[in-house]
Design brief:
transport, copper, 7 helices, 168 residues, mainly alpha, two-stranded antiparallel ribbon, 2 domains, 60% helix
Length: 168
């Protein structure tokens, strides 16, 4: 069938285009190394080492940001729990006693942070599913560095169940 006829027929052209061998070769199902990656959306494609490096920096920052947000979410959870005394609030930095003395406000703030953190979790998971080795390594290192910076020193302060999976 002629290419012009396919394009004129509407739906057939888009169906043929997505199932073409060129597109099938671009979808990796095993880890690969290299600067050519499409991350999350079609317009986020790296085609040079520079754009790949910038993408890796963004992935690293999002992974560290996940740990930062998880730390704050757990602090709101601690603040809103019935076991936290009002006097313990000054041990929780970046939270103001007057603003969050009401447990419902703290619970609402924790819920908002949970939603944001869940979105970041899924973005990280989908980025890893690009099967690019560099993206995978940078996200794991970003999670570890973020944990070191934001969460490793508060083990005695926050005693809640933790999920080490970035997608949970």
């Amino acid at each position: 069938m002629d290419t012009n006829k396919i394009h004129q027929s509407g739906g057939l052209a888009s169906h043929k285009h997505h199932n073409s061998p060129e597109n099938a070769a671009m979808m990796h199902m095993t880890f690969y190394w290299g600067p050519d990656v499409t991350l999350l959306i079609d317009s986020w494609k790296t085609n040079s080492w520079f754009s790949y490096f910038l993408t890796l920096i963004v992935c690293f920052l999002f992974a560290a940001f996940y740990q930062f947000m998880e730390d704050h979410r757990l602090r709101f959870k601690l603040l809103s729990s019935s076991h936290t005394a009002v006097g313990d609030v000054e041990n929780v930095p970046l939270l103001y006693t007057k603003l969050f003395s009401d447990r419902r406000r703290a619970r609402f703030a924790g819920t908002v942070l949970f939603g944001i953190n869940s979105a970041v979790n899924y973005f990280l998971m989908l980025a890893v599913m690009s099967f690019n080795g560099g993206v995978f390594v940078v996200i794991v290192v970003g999670l570890a560095v973020g944990y070191l910076l934001f969460r490793s020193g508060d083990d005695e302060l926050i005693l809640v169940d933790e999920d080490p999976c970035a997608c949970g």
